[in-house]
What we know:
Elements: E1 4-10, H1 14-24, E2 29-35, E3 47-54, E4 57-63, E5 74-80, H2 83-93, E6 98-106, E7 109-116, E8 122-127, E9 134-140, H3 148-158, E10 163-169, E11 181-188, E12 191-197, E13 210-216, H4 219-230, E14 234-235, E15 240-242, E16 248-253, H5 254-260, H6 265-276, H7 283-291
Parallel strand pairs: 1-4, 5-8, 9-12, 13-16
Antiparallel strand pairs: 1-13, 2-3, 3-4, 5-9, 6-7, 7-8, 10-11, 11-12, 14-15, 15-16
Amino acid sequence: MQKITPFLWFNDNLEEAMNFYTSIFKNSKVVDVRRSGDGMPGEKGKIFTATFQLQGQEFYALNGGPHFMFTPAISFFVNCETPEEIDALWKKLGESGIVFMELNKYPFCEKFGWVQDKFGISWQLNLTHTKQKITPFLMFVKEQQGKAEEAINFYTSLFKNSEILRVAHYGVGEGGAVGTVKHAAFLLNGNEFMAMDSNREHPFTFTPAISFFVDCKTQDEVDYFWDKLSRGGRTDRCGWLTDKYGVSWQIIPSALGELLGDPDPTKAKRVMDAMLKMTKIQIKGLKEAYEQV
């Protein structure tokens, strides 16, 4: 299990989206599906949550309804090894989508394009060779513009096995506020992320439609990340929080998934009901609900 996993909030079209993505990316598969009923909320038989892999990297997803919408503030940077691979992905992802940057040659890359697909998720396709094939890309806009470097320093201070790989700043006449982040790459617990500042007038910013799920082994670890990441931000139910930069996280103990996966639907439902009443997740409370006679 990845320590930090992108979590996608779909408006009741999770199954269609998941099948689409796993059909177009190499080394991809559906790992786990949990349907409503038998302890899970919602219309019985419909997918409630799912885990799938794209290019070997894990994603979590939820059929959460119309509450949140994807925006290009968080996109996924895809490294393609051949012109044929990038062309095929561009064609598929562009179907009924919106093009932000045409697939073309640019000063920074032999071939690059930025597109929002028909489900609302944004992808940056790049012709290059790197170990990590799909990388979350954070764009700091509106009131968060100019805070990318501060956020990167903050995040890398929290997680083990983290470091700043490279940071390039805007110079005079380069299209951004001088001194802010033009492009940056950094590791969080060994997973690569990218970030930039944009001072253009964008009609969007970060939303909880894409959050980052942090797998915690102990209550102490839950408490640590909950306290650090929520400070200056806001908390919500079920282990969700938004940090001071507007990025959403889920701080979740491994025990939750283990208990919800029990074959006894009555036990699983008790755990789900207990979790839905919590803000920060408490492992003790989950176990008490599970063991209730």
